[in-house]
Write a structure and sequence with these properties.
CATH superfamily of the largest domain in chain B: P-loop containing nucleotide triphosphate hydrolases
Mean pLDDT of chain A: 89
Strand order of the largest sheet of chain A: 2-1-3
CATH architecture of the largest domain in chain A: Orthogonal Bundle
Helix content of chain B: 25-40%
Number of strands of chain B: 22
Number of strands of chain A: 5
Number of domains of chain B: 3
Mean pLDDT of chain B: 87
Distance between the termini of chain A: 45 Å
Distance between the termini of chain B: 35 Å
CATH topology of the largest domain in chain B: Rossmann fold
Largest sheet of chain B: 6 strands, mixed
Structural class of chain A: mainly alpha
Low-confidence stretches of chain A: 1-20
Oligomer: heterodimer
Strand content of chain A: under 5%
Strand order of the largest sheet of chain B: 6-7-8-3-9-10
CATH topology of the largest domain in chain A: ABC transporter involved in vitamin B12 uptake, BtuC
């Protein structure tokens, strides 16, 4: 036994690692079969195509140069993708990807299948053009509140407080943004939305941290409170005086010089309103800060092992208060994006479940900001697909109820199937009580 | 730095954990605080570290009264503490854990990782405490984790270091290394308060010994005192430290564990092709440091955990896929290591806890309802027989002390005839008096013809009770030795080293192979 683990002070330290458990055969084959089914579906789509070509519009017209439309032969594209997916599925069933490889392969598989699907959808009748750039722009617009909501979740849960109240915080922000945006101007609206979200966050913090209320139940109750309160104010004040209370000026896109003229990414990323730019900054700041700043280190420590943090003199409760309140403010900004960034007025329950989808994005994204962004974009795309399919006429009509289910189906499959077991912060949802 | 505690009193409700305790720690001495579990040692140190606020008394540093609002104040005053349960974030690196709370920054709250790493390397080199700054805590053996805790205190300029039961999780070899570290620290002028209930260690390393019993200082002792003297001072009466038992007469094989393999939820192989058998009238000890697969193995035998391979038989019957209920009916008794979590239901009464596994038998039920009268009568009888100290049989299980809870679990399991008894860590957190009693009952069960599997991390317990000893290391039984094997040999096995003089037939063939099928050992010089 030369690999003894004893180490004497001064010796070199030997680290033993155990390799990951190979995926169970059932799971491995199951995933392989699922990929193959997508492959077969692609072949079917190719067979079913009506028009010869599908046309994708990739430019807006304001770029430095015109990006030509992408024209794909539908049947051939779908067949090729089908065969690739069948091959990948067979490899997975027989050999199996490593977990990391599977995640990368999964992204590729999803993108390829979507390409086959969209080609088929555009091939109805004589064929139609899909404004792919527009689809992506809408995806980002739909994802923006989800991203902000999920960031709120990151702050809360990384510090150990479960935030089911994202929905309510967003709703409060949406309401404050619309009403005070009308009264005080749109920047005043954004500011009050931040404050309204922070107040909701503060409520969550006080009851969760100080009064040790069960955090999931508390979140549900706060959502009901927010829905009731904003609904009441809407009925009592805003709706009767819509002109003076519920017509905020909407933020228009700001084009970033030069960058916005780049093909594809220009119109997609650098031609957005100020709330989206603020969102970019928040994503980068939180992603970087969590792992490279004192705030991040302490936040993670408090969320993982609060007692360890306490014994080195960190004020656990204060760190949690700060993060939960900040999180509430960010969710409030997400709400403001809905009223001040896109719709232009408040209606009852305008957030319509976005806060819960944001929660799913947080988990799907493994409690990391960049993961949450990716998940939010996926969900945003599912929403957009619903709209798209009702506009183009695919060869086979898809029932609208089924389309309405898409985002939620995507959520369930994503959280249950692709993520599998994920590790939440160690002390997530556990109140810290000093003995 | 001279540290003095004067008349420290700490109460929890009506219970007085520390009763006017006086203690003086001179600069550069190793001061042992000896006492049983629950004597109030840890409470006292938590008061000193600012985690608890005393109800009376004062703390003096260099003859000046100080008061601590929290650990930060205590640390600023030069007091460092290594807790019994390490205060380390498992998903953080060593450097991150060390700098947490006093971070090295480049300004604006931006972490300076390079500087933190340098600081860790510097301190660990100065005191000979080798730690890898970039490794994650969860990947490190406990001995190294403990060094990280010590580095953490030293980096904050601790002049008095409190070590709370530091050897509870260590192998004998690691314990020796820790003592070496303690001597090095002492030589550099750091005082150490060493909390323990292990007599051997106190005598080996301490300069002065203060004995605490039931929250009070009952005396000082010199390190030259004998173990028996220290034990009786600690317990308050003469104690028998050795276990009396007759030579064993092994009968037929009762239980056979055959190539059992268990993979945990995280995908790690925790029990790696383990095989052993136990005979009637024999105590087979599974020795080893905590976390080497013993817990999972016993849970698998009782049916709480599915196997990923292998077979378990009891009296020739295959119980591999049987459920817990059937296995208990096959006359298997189980005393789990975590009695409060797995052994009893805290909010249930003593009487209810005593029939947890048999409430549905004809003996304790009348049709669909419980026979409350018989359950109570049974309880009174068991409480009497096993000397369970409780106010009444209707008191909730959680109100009992650790030792009495353990006797309660044992009373339940031994109240029916057993073929196989599995006892895991039977005396952890149990006072010396109850330990004696529990050991006697285990030996009596063996003498009655049952096969006994004893899982223990306490070397003394293993040596005292076992007829045969299998040492588990990283999921394998890396060596099987007879009773009477030296503590040193078993200690080496517990650390994963097979001594050269061990007869070849005692070696597990799998353990000597270079790397098993799934366990990959990467050795990285750091």
């Amino acid at each position: 036994m030369s690999t003894a683990a004893t180490t004497r002070p001064g010796d070199e330290v030997v680290i033993h690692r155990v390799v990951e458990k190979p995926m169970s055969t059932r799971r491995r084959v199951g995933i392989g079969v699922a990929i193959s089914v997508l492959g077969l579906l692609s072949l079917l789509l190719g067979h079913n195509a009506q028009a010869h070509d599908a046309r994708f519009d990739l430019s807006q017209g304001s770029e430095f140069f015109h990006v030509p439309d992408l024209v794909l032969p539908v049947a051939a594209t779908a067949y090729v993708i089908g065969i690739i997916l069948l091959a990948v599925g067979a490899y997975q069933a027989v050999r199996g990807f490593r977990p990391r490889g599977l995640r990368i392969a999964g992204t590729g598989i999803g993108a390829l299948f979507m390409l086959a699907f969209l080609s088929w959808a555009a091939s109805g009748g004589k064929g139609s053009t899909i404004d792919l750039l527009g689809v992506l722009e809408n995806t980002l617009a739909l994802a923006a509140p989800l991203i902000l909501g999920a960031l709120a979740g990151v702050l809360c849960e990384r510090s150990g407080v479960i935030n089911v109240a994202i929905e309510g915080q967003m709703l409060a922000g949406a309401w404050a943004g619309a009403m005070f945006g009308t009264l005080m101007g749109r920047f005043g609206g954004v500011l009050t939305a931040l404050v309204a979200g922070a107040l909701m966050g503060w409520l969550l913090a006080v009851f969760a941290i100080r009064y040790l209320v069960n955090q999931v139940v508390l979140g549900v109750v706060l959502n009901a409170l927010s829905l009731g309160l904003t609904g009441f104010i809407y009925d009592a004040i805003m709706q009767p005086n819509a002109n003076t209370m519920n017509t905020p000026q909407v933020f228009q896109p700001l084009q970033i010089p030069v960058l916005s003229k780049l093909p594809l990414v220009g119109p997609l990323i650098f031609d957005q309103n100020i709330i989206v730019y603020l969102m970019y900054a928040l994503v980068i700041l939180i992603q970087w800060g969590l792992f490279h700043s004192r705030w991040g280190l302490r936040t993670r420590a408090v969320g993982e092992h609060p007692k360890a943090a306490d014994t080195v003199g960190i004020n656990v409760l204060r760190v949690r208060y700060v993060n939960v309140i900040l999180g509430g403010a960010i969710a409030g900004l997400g709400g403001a994006f809905m009223t001040l960034g896109s719709v232009g007025s408040f209606t009852k329950g305008i957030t319509s479940g976005n806060g819960f989808i944001a929660l799913a994005a947080l988990i799907f994204g493994r409690w990391s900001p960049k993961g949450a962004v990716a998940a939010s974009l996926l969900f945003g795309f599912a929403y957009e697909l619903q709209t798209l399919l009702s506009l183009v006429a695919p060869p086979v009509a898809i029932p609208s109820y089924f389309l309405a289910m898409l985002p939620y189906l995507a959520t369930i499959f994503a959280v249950a199937g692709l993520v599998g077991k994920v590790r939440a912060p160690g002390a997530d949802g556990e109140p810290y009580v000093k003995e | 730095m001279k540290l003095e505690l004067r008349g420290i009193t700490k109460r929890f409700g009506s219970f007085t954990a520390n009763d006017a305790i006086d203690l003086v720690v001179e600069p550069g001495e190793i001061h042992a605080l000896l006492g049983e579990n629950g004597a109030g040692k840890s409470t006292l140190m938590n008061v000193l570290y600012g985690l608890y606020h005393p109800d009376g008394g004062e703390i003096l540093i260099d003859d000046k009264v100080v008061s601590f609002a929290g650990p930060a104040d205590a640390m600023a005053a030069g007091i460092g503490m290594v807790h019994q349960h390490f205060m380390l974030v498992p998903v953080f690196t060593v450097a991150e854990n060390v700098e947490l709370g006093h971070e090295q920054t480049k300004g604006f709250g931006i972490l300076d990782a390079a500087k933190a790493r340098r600081e860790v390397t510097e301190v660990s080199a100065r005191y000979g405490l080798s730690v890898p700054p970039d490794a994650l805590i969860q990947d490190l053996p406990v001995g190294v984790q403990q060094r990280v805790e010590i580095v953490k205190a030293l980096i904050r300029n601790a002049k008095v270091l409190i070590l709370d039961e530091p050897t509870a999780v260590l192998t004998p070899q690691e314990t020796d290394e820790l003592m070496e570290v303690m001597r090095t620290l002492k030589a550099s002028g750091t005082s150490i308060v060493f909390i323990t209930h292990k007599l051997r260690e106190v005598r080996a390393v301490a300069d002065r010994i203060t004995v605490i019993r039931r929250g009070k200082v009952v005396g000082e002792a010199s390190p030259n005192s004998s173990s028996a003297e220290l034990a009786s001072l600690m317990v308050g009466r003469p104690v028998q430290l050795t276990i009396e038992k007759a030579a064993h007469e092994p009968g037929d094989v009762i239980a056979e564990v055959d190539n059992v393999r268990i993979v945990d939820d995280a995908g790690q192989v925790v029990v790696d092709d383990v095989s052993f058998d136990v005979h009637a009238g024999e105590i087979y000890a599974l020795a080893g440091v905590q976390g080497n697969g013993q817990t999972e193995l016993t849970e698998a035998i009782i049916g709480l955990r599915p196997l990923d391979g292998g077979r378990i038989t009891l009296s020739g019957r295959d119980i591999t896929d049987s459920d817990v209920h059937d296995i208990l009916r096959a006359d298997l008794g189980y005393v789990p290591e975590d009695r409060l979590h797995d052994g009893l239901i805290g909010s249930f009464t003593v009487a209810e806890n005593l029939v947890l596994d048999r409430y549905d038998s004809a003996e304790f039920s009348k049709g669909p309802s419980l026979d409350v009268g018989r359950i109570a009568a049974n309880a009174r009888q068991r409480v009497e027989e096993f000397d369970v100290r409780t106010q009444s049989v209707d008191a909730p299980g959680s109100t009992l002390s650790g030792g009495n809870q353990q006797k309660l679990v044992l009373a339940r399991e031994l109240s029916r005839p057993l073929k196989l008894l599995i006892v895991a860590q039977p005396t952890r957190g149990v006072d010396v008096g109850s330990t004696e009693f529990i050991h006697r009952r285990i030996v009596a069960e063996r003498d009655g013809g049952a096969a006994v599997v004893l899982v223990s991390t306490e070397l003394d317990e293993v040596l005292g009770l076992a007829d045969r000893i299998g040492v588990m290391y990283r999921g394998k039984i890396i060596g099987e030795v007879p009773a009477g094997t030296s503590a040193e040999t078993i200690g080496l096995l517990m650390a994963g080293t097979v001594p050269d003089d061990l007869p070849a037939r005692l070696r597990d063939p799998g353990a000597t192979a270079t790397g098993s099928r799934t366990t990959v050992r990467t050795e990285e010089p750091l």
